[in-house]
Amino acid sequence: MNTHSIRSHDALMRAFAVAEMVTASLDEPPTSVSVRQCLGITSEVDVYFHQMPEHVLAAAEKYGVEPVLTPNYADDPNLVCTEAHVQCDGVAVRFWALVNVAVVEVAA
After folding, report:
1. Reported pTM
2. Which has the closest alpha carbon to 29: 49, 54, 51, 58?
3. What is the model's pLDDT at position 86?
4. Contact, 99 vs 82, CB < 8 A?
């Protein structure tokens, strides 16, 4: 295994460990957790809560970061994205929820 492969493998394994740690720390289970490797050097953890921005807000509070709300997400007036970004053990973690306000309004 060359040096690049070792660093890539180590970064990926660290991200899996962070994904487990972050998931265990949450009060509510996320809809999905994924790990992505970026350019074979760093890895990221993506924690998604389907239509549950309140869980993103709780994670932001737990990790002491400010959440970001993006209305008109992807230029769609019905989509609102709530995100919080943290670094855990050198791994970028994104908590996020995408809400379709048109669907929420119909359900209400």
Report:
1. 0.86
2. 49
3. 97
4. yes
